[in-house]
Amino acid sequence: MALMKRFFYLAALVLAFLPGRAAFAADDLNTVLRKLDAAAANFTSTSASFEFDSVVTEPLPDKDVQTGTVYYQRKGTAFQMAAHIDKLNGKPAPKMYTYSNGALKLYDELTNQQRSFARAGKFESYLMLGFGASGTALEDKWTITYLGPDTVDGIKTEKLELVAKDPDVKKNIPKVTIWVDTARAVSLKQVFEEGSGQYRVCVYFNIKVNQALPADAFTFKTDKKTTYVNR
């Protein structure tokens, strides 16, 4: 039995270093990315329900769970997105953040405060990740490793590991893993490694592609008492 195990171990090592394995992986990745190119060409909008789990493992384990709805829209080269957060850990916590024309805005309904981040353009590839992004766009911003096919909620997906080419993005998000439906150019699941024992798991469901979005999908309802903070 020990001899047999040793044989299989050696065989595995030999297979691991065969030059053809890398070529096959590259071919598979190229096929996935070209499918995303085709699907992204027909992409105009998406809406989906979400659950975002922010997990801390060090120094003390903790987890926050946000739920709500996301919206994505692309017209030509223009892209915008919004996340409407309804609950935090099961309790009402109405917040909304939007991204459009390189600017990121966050509105907290409970405090009636809007925060704006003007120079957020370099993070656009992170915000649109897996929602209408073409394979070519992913290749431009990320170093991609193909991890093979997988199934999420009964839907066939392709699992990709992404490392940002931009040092500033990589510093904040060392690695991202996505489970993408190449037929629709949408992600069903994303895991963002944030370093220092922190990561975020994002799961999307009730996904609707290329359907009309609500008129207020990307706008806030502010008033005279709203305070503004610009960064």
Molecular structure report:
This protein is an alpha+beta fold. The protein has a single domain, classed as Lipoprotein localisation LolA/LolB/LppX (outer membrane lipoprotein receptor (LolB), chain A, Clam), CATH 2.50.20. 23% of the residues lie in helices and 48% in strands. The chain has 5 helices and 12 strands. It has helices spanning 2-16, 19-40, 124-127, 135-141, 167-172; strands at 45-56, 62-75, 78-88, 91-100, 103-108, 113-117, 142-152, 155-164, 175-181, 186-195, 198-209, 227-230. A 12-stranded mixed β-sheet has the order 7-8-9-10-11-1-2-3-4-5-6-12. The longest helix is centred in the first third of the chain and has 22 residues, at 19-40.
In brief:
The chain is α+β, with helices and mostly antiparallel strands and 231 residues long. It has helices at 2-16, 19-40, 124-127, 135-141, 167-172, and strands at residues 45-56, 62-75, 78-88, 91-100, 103-108, 113-117, 142-152, 155-164, 175-181, 186-195, 198-209, 227-230.
